[in-house]
Amino acid sequence: MKYLLLCSLLLLKSVVSLSQQEFKSLSTGTREEITAIHVFSERTIIAVAAGGTIIRTTDAGLTWKPMASGTNEDLRAVSFVSQNIGYAAGMNQAILRTTDAGTNWERMPFNSTNFHFLDIYFTDSNTGFLAVSNGKILRTTNAGNSWDTVYKNNDQFITSFHFINELTGFATAGGGNSENGYGLLLKTTDGGKSWNKAGTSLNVTVTAVCMVTDNIIYATAYDGLILKSTDAGNNWSKTSIRDVRAFRDIVFTDNNNGYVAGDAASLYFTTDAGKSWNKIALPISTDLCNIQEKNGHLYVAGTDGQFLKN
Fold first, then answer.
1. Most exposed of 34, 91, 180, 190 (fewest Cβ within 10 Å)?
2. 242 to each of 29, 59, 169, 237, 279, how far by Cα in Å?
3. Which H, E and C letters describe 237-294, residue by residue?
C-alpha cells in the first residue's frame, strides 16, 4: 500500500512539474506569423515566416537577425540537409535554397503556377518532397533542380510530411469528398516513389504527423483531435481536447512523452503514450504553428512573431 501511494505521489509530482514548465517568450523582432523553425543547436535557430521573413538567432533566441530571403511570399516550411544547405517553401510556388547556413537564399525556378507549397521535407541531400495545395506530392532526387509528381488527388491538399527513415514516411491531407475520403494520411514504404492511403478516411483535416516507431504514429487535426495508430497506420484512435479549434503540430521525444501545439496558445503534453493529455500554461494567447525538440529543450513558434522555449 505504501509502495502504491509513493508511486502515485511521484506520478502526480511529475505531471505537475511538466504542466508548470516555465516557457519564456522571446522577442523575434517581427510580427509576422512564424510557420516553421529549424533548431541547429540550443544557440542557433532559423525561423521562416509570412512576408518572406527569415530570421536567425545565434544566442539562444535573445536576439534575432533578418536574413536576405529574396522574396515577399509567405513561407510555410523549412528543411535543412546539413549545417549549410537548406530549403524553404511557401506560397505561389516559392522554393528557396541556402548554401551558407541561412545567411543568403536564392529562389529556385519552378514552371507551374497557381498553387502553393505547404511543406518541404528532405530525407537526404538529394531526395526531398513538396506538399502542394492542389493535392500533389512532388519528389526530387537531384537536390531540387527538378521535381516529379508521385501522388495526385485534385480533391485534396497535402499539408505535411514525416519520415522515420529514408524509405518509410507519412503525408497528411485535408479536403476530399465522399468518394475519395475526407482527411487522409498517406504512407510510403519505398522512399516516396509511391503513396497509398493509410487506413480509412478520418473525416477531418489532418495537420501534422509524427512517427515514433514503424508501428506507432501520432497525428494532429482540426476540431482539437489527436490521432494515434499502433499498427503502422491501418487503424486510428481519436482523442478530442475540448475548446481547441485545431492542433497544428506534434512532436514525441520517446515512446511515452509527447507534445501537441495549436490555436489560442494550446500546448499539451503526455507522459503515458497519449492516454492522457495535460495543458501547459503559457504567457501568451496567440496561435501556435510549429513545435520542435532538441536535447531536452522545447521550442514553439506561432503568430505575431511569437517564439517560446523552456
1. 190
2. 33, 37, 29, 16, 11
3. EEEECCCCCEEEEEEECCCCCEEEEECCCEEEEECCCCCCCEECCCCCCCCEEEEEEE
230: number of Cβ within 10 Å: 16
> Could you tell me which residues are beta bridge partners of residue 178?
none
For the record, the C-alpha cell of 282 comes out as 503559457
Residue/partner pairs of 256-259 with CB below 8 Å, 24 or more apart: 258/210, 258/212, 258/218, 259/291, 259/293, 259/298
Per-residue b/e over 149-180, b at no fewer than 16 CB within 10 Å? ebbebeebbbbbbbbeeeebbbbbbbbbeeeb
Q: For 166, left (φ over 0), alpha (ψ -120 to 50), or beta? A: alpha
Angle at 39 between CA 36 and CA 44, to 5 degrees: 120
Average pLDDT, the chain: 90
Q: pLDDT tens digits, residue range 8-38?
A: 333 444 444 444 468 999 999 999 999 999 9
Neighbouring-strand partners of residue 173: 158, 184
How far does Cα 79 stand from its chain's mean position?
11
Cα 283–285–287 angle (5° rounding)? 120
Distance in angstroms (rounded) separating the CA atoms of residues 209 and 268: 16
CB contact at 8 A, 125 and 112: no
DSSP state of 217: E
